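Section 3.1: Structural characterization of target chains.
Under the original work plan, the team committed to producing a structural model for every single-chain target entering the pipeline before any wet-lab resources were allocated. The record below documents one such target. The sequence was received from the expression subgroup and is listed exactly as submitted; it comprises 120 residues.
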Amino acid sequence: MLEPSHNDDLPPIPGKRYFTIGEVSELCAVKPHVLRYWEQEFPQLSPVKRAGNRRYYQRQDVLMIRQIRALLYEQGFTIGGARQRLSSEDARDDSTQYHQLIRQMITELEEVLLVLRKTA
């Protein structure tokens, strides 16, 4: 079973396709310069770059950043240790990422339920 993490305190990820570095910074409680550094250190992180070298992150990138954040800040891994852990987990299903996604979907469904109750 997964240990409870501080990722529970992070805001839900909005249901949109792309996020700016500022949005991801807020969603993951990590400063933009840290995100840019992590892109160099973790090959799994590769946001889409558009005109002017602007970064656009997708939902799976945000989930990956939250996972990296948990490994580094909550579980005490070094950058190298976290990189190794993530690359070894790439070979099998990543339960932490699925756990985050399920939690996100539950939050979104609860919000929909509230809206439906208000309109009923």
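Residues 95-119 form the longest helix (25 residues).
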